[in-house]
Amino acid sequence: MERVQHMTKSAIRRASQIEVNPQAKRNLQELFVNFTLILICLLLIYIIVLLSS
Prior knowledge:
Elements: H1 2-17, H2 22-52
């Protein structure tokens, strides 16, 4: 278990040291926002279908 925690910590440390250029960061954020909006829309459609039946 300690070994897993150590590996996780070192992986997080390495990941935080990687420099992401602002353009890629913005693209990822937009992608995440779009994905979230699509999920919300699908959920709303699902609820409407459930209520109408």
